[in-house]
Write a structure and sequence with these properties.
This protein is an alpha/beta fold. The chain is 44% helix and 18% strand. Helix 5 links the parallel strand 5 and strand 6. The chain binds NADP nicotinamide-adenine-dinucleotide phosphate (NAP). Belongs to the short-chain dehydrogenases/reductases (SDR) family.
Length: 243
């Protein structure tokens, strides 16, 4: 029997990039997976690419909308693991030129959205289940200039998980912190310059290349399975923290 047979896993952000990779790995290991995102088109394309029949279901929900999350978790019923990879490109302007409206949208989506997810997921998450949120290398190696906001928000997730792990015990709460992963988010941030950015970074990384979603998905699966790991952050960045 596969490791996750009979388990229900909800992946918010599962229609693209890292979340889609987690959904694929969980399905391959026998889980029933619910992928969640705002765009019905992205969800449809993701379901098609996953090609997993009734094992996968998609739900349109915006994690900044409390009513969407209440409906999502009411309809999902009891479940085993919540993964959130949801996020939008971070603000990147030098601090003197900070666009405060963009900062508020980013914080609302990434951080307040995570708080709201935890609030609505807690009631129906099984006692031996877990929540996994996503931070990132920007907290350790902030882009300069313009990295202060993303660094602060990504950095806050480690403390969020430690406090929630105590409050929600015995349910577990952990964080995955990826390095650079080749996903559609990069196309949005740097567009055609992506291959140049990636070649430069790959040359500096101990791993010698940029990750794919399949490279980082095992960190999420490990945290779901490891019954003795809670309040922890796993860095999976090809050695990016070292350079
Ligand atoms: N890629 C990297 O190199 C990297 C490195 C470190 C950390 N990270 C972090 O990892 C996370 C995932 O990144 P990615 O590269 O996989 O991005 P991506 O390919 O753009 O995927 C983001 C996913 O989040 C969903 N989403 C965004 N806002 C949402 C909301 N309010 N409610 C529900 N779903 C929402 C998107 O779907 P909709 O747009 O349809 O809602 C999409 O499914 C981000 O938070 C990012 O900061 C990424």
């Amino acid at each position: 029997m596969a490791a996750f047979t009979g388990q229900k896993i909800i992946v918010v952000g599962g229609s693209s990039g890292i979340g889609l990779g987690v959904a694929r790995a969980a399905l391959e290991n026998g889980a029933d997976v619910v992928i969640v995102g705002r765009s019905p088109d992205k969800l449809r394309a993701a379901e098609q690419s996953l090609d997993a029949g009734l094992q996968v279901r998609s739900v349109v929900a915006d994690m900044t909308e409390e009513a969407d999350l209440a409906r999502l978790f009411q309809n999902a019923g009891a479940f085993d693991h919540l993964v959130s990879t949801a996020g939008t490109p971070p603000p990147g302007d030098p601090i003197e030129r900070t666009d405060m409206a963009m900062v508020r949208r980013f914080v609302d989506n990434k951080l307040i959205g995570a708080v709201m997810l935890a609030k609505h997921a807690a009631a129906t998450l099984r006692r031996d289940g877990s929540m996994i949120f996503t931070s990132g290398i920007n907290k350790d190696r902030p882009p300069i200039p313009g990295g202060a906001v993303v660094s602060a928000i990504a950095g806050s997730f480690g403390f969020f998980a430690r406090a929630l792990a105590l409050e929600l015990a015995p349910r577990r709460v952990n964080i995955v912190s990826p390095g650079w992963v080749d996903t559609p988010m990069w196309d949005e941030i740097v567009g055609e310059a992506k291959s140049g950015f990636f070649a430069g970074m790959a040359g500096r990384l101990p791993a010698g290349r940029i990750a794919t979603p399949a490279d980082v998905a095992p960190a999420y699966l490990y945290l779901m399975q490891s019954a003795f790991t809670t309040g922890e952050t796993i860095h999976i960045d090809g050695g990016h923290c070292l350079i």
